[in-house]
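Sharing in case it's useful to others searching the archive later.

Someone asked me privately for the predicted structure of Reverse transcriptase RNase H-like domain-containing protein, so I'm posting the question and my answer publicly. Question first, with the sequence:
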Amino acid sequence: MTRERIKAYEKIRKALTEAPLLLMPDWNIPFELYIEACGDGLKASLHQVQIIDDKPTEGPICYISRQIKQTEARHGAIQMYFLCLVWALEKLHYSLDSSAFEVMTDCNAMKSLLNMKTPNRNMLRWQIAQNSHILTM
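And my answer, the predicted structure tokens:
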């Protein structure tokens, strides 16, 4: 094994054997809500950029996830992301109700759908749910 491989192995081993450091929320700093929806589940994590050791450092506050229900499995990709967003807003309402936050996702279609003039019934319900929060994308 080369030195590079040994170094990479040690880095991976260290990352797998140490728990990730969760930050305490600072209510004066905006949050970042990362969401991900895939065929088997919904995942979200709440992050914040805080000053640690005189450097701005992004760190996790909490992680949440759940399996997709059988009735939800028929949704399309965009609907799954909206479902994930609404679910995350419901689960993390205690942190997000009075705080500014930005949604981070790899689904660019969500931005245009949030601004739709005539959404379908599900999209309208999801728009109403997210409009009750201080949200940017």
